[in-house]
Amino acid sequence: MLTHKSLLEAYVHAKDKCCPSLIHDIYEPNAVLSISTSVSAVAFPPLVVGADGIAQTLVTDFARRFTHCRTYYVCDGFDVRNGRIEQLPWLVLMREEETASLRIGRGYYNWQLNQHPEQLWRASEMHIRIDHMMLIADIAGDLLQTLQSFLPYPWLPSRVLDSSFGFIGDSNPSFAFLNEFRSNKFELPRERLSA
After folding, report:
1. Rounded Cα gap, residues 57 and 51, in angstroms
2. Which of 69, 137, 162, 190 could form a disulfide with 166 if both were Cys (CB 3.0 to 4.6 A apart)?
């Protein structure tokens, strides 16, 4: 049974662990995925229709380029209104094999979820906003492994990110975007993650 929380967890598992078959448990067969980005460092199709296309884009094609991926929901909880989850912040830490580099990305997810019998939820629409995607040389992958070891996965409270990486955002202009995750940026009433 997929609840709101378990659906979000299943999405991260499918994408990060390269399990395209799980996409059909998460999305409606005719679901619509839209992607917008303000960076030129990554390229995705702006619109994908259907669970098969979503699995191809977000899992199969993605895994050809990126490995050791971990996608984090940066929040203490999330708000669900009429099946909608808006502006859910995400952070991704992953390896780009072709360039032997660490990629650090940041953005938001918007979801439209539909309820089926027995409290089963599936996504009918998803929008991914990519605001940042940094590339940092990491030939052996040690930096990626170190950074991931500090962070709980996949639910990452913003205060934990503050305490783990806040000094990086303050001291290095290239990482200033991490400050956008600071706890005081997200004060909307939210469903607790334990719900």
Report:
1. 10
2. 162
CA dist 2 and 60 (Å) reads: 23
Which pTM value belongs to this model? 0.88
The tokens describing 56, both together, are 């191809």
Neighbours of 22 (CB within 10 A): 17
Task: Pull the structure tokens for residue 96.
Answer: 């780009």
DSSP string for residues in 27-80: EEEEEEEEEEES-SS----SEEESHHHHHIIIIIIHHHHEEEEEEEEESSEE--
Structure tokens at 18: 């390269």
Pick from 150, 186, 173: nearest CA to 72: 150
Query: pLDDT of 57-112, one tens digit each?
Result: 999 999 999 999 999 999 988 999 999 999 999 999 999 999 999 999 999 999 99
| Nearest CA-CA partner of 180 in 86, 103, 91, 111 | 91
- What is each CA distance from 147 to 69, 94, 103, 142, in whole angstroms? 12, 10, 11, 9
- Amino acid 129 reads R
**CA–CA gap between residue 177 and residue 49 (Å, rounded):** 31
